[in-house]
Amino acid sequence: MRSIDLESLEIFRAVVQEGGVIRAASKLNRVQSNVTTRIKQLEQRLGRALFRRQGRGLVLSPEGELLLSYAQRLFRLADEAESELKSGRAMGVFRIGSLESTAGSRLAPILSRFHRQHPGVVVELVTGTTGALVQRVGNFEIEAAFVSEPFTPGALASRKVFEEELVLITGEDVRPVRRASDLAGMTLIAFANGCSYRKRVEEWLGASALMPARTLEFASYQAMIACVAAGTGYAIVPRSLLATVHSAKDVRQHELPARVRRNRTHLVWQGTPSTSLVRLQELLD
């Protein structure tokens, strides 16, 4: 447990600067006995004498000299922290989450610009499904996340940031898919439960009383698209992502119904946004 607080160090520093308890008490607008008591309490907590009497005055002991050097550094840091916070500059670690597709196709230029404008911020980006990211924001593990419809924001604030077009992909040898029934007996390739795109395709199939013959779960779009290209099954992905993945040239794209293909990515967060989050939101305007 920490035994030193800034208030005790401020009293200690005043006694040193003013050369005694009486003048320090006057400067701090405290009674003399209070200053004396606080110095004694500090010495008791540290187990060291901080002053030595010299005539009618006080001089620092070697331990007091050491504490004074640390106190000066702590006050400089406190002043620096207050100044930075009041400046409105974005600083520190900024933890955000994103769908892998959004990170791969949308965020690179935005985060690059953010870094140029706010070099004092260290961005930590984690990826996951919409369900997992919403939960992590709600648990204050990350400050904000880019997630996709459909999702339930609950107590989280949200704003729409990207319009996405979802596309169905299959192996090149698959005939054009015009309705959900054309996928009967085939394998769905998707992220784990909690993926909003997976939920979309399952709802589309369910509306026709269909279910995938089986579902293979992957942790990356590169692996999913490569598996589709190999003829294993089908997947739903954002069209913007396909331009960034080399193996996308080996798959066949099929247009989905409007109610399925139209999708939006949202930024979600909890509570009052930090300065870093406000600056990121400004880049998304």
Provide a descriptive summary of the structure in words.
- This protein is of the alpha/beta class and 285 residues long.
- It has three domains: 6-87, Arc Repressor Mutant, subunit A, CATH 1.10.10.10; 92-161 and 265-284, Periplasmic binding protein-like II (D-Maltodextrin-Binding Protein, domain 2, 3-Layer(aba) Sandwich); 163-264, D-Maltodextrin-Binding Protein, domain 2, CATH 3.40.190.10.
- It has eleven helices and eleven strands.
- The protein has helices spanning 6-18, 21-28, 32-46, 62-87, 100-117, 130-138, 196-206, 221-229, 239-242, 258-261, 275-284, and strands at 51-54, 57-60, 92-98, 121-127, 144-148, 157-171, 187-190, 214-217, 235-238, 251-254, 262-269.
- Strands 3, 4, 5, 6, 9, 10 and 11 form a seven-stranded mixed β-sheet that branches. A two-stranded antiparallel sheet has the order 1-2. Strands 7-8 form a two-stranded parallel sheet.
- α2 (21-28) packs across α3.
- The longest helix is centred in the first third of the chain and has 26 residues, at 62-87.
- It is rod-shaped.
- The model has no long low-confidence stretch (mean pLDDT 89).
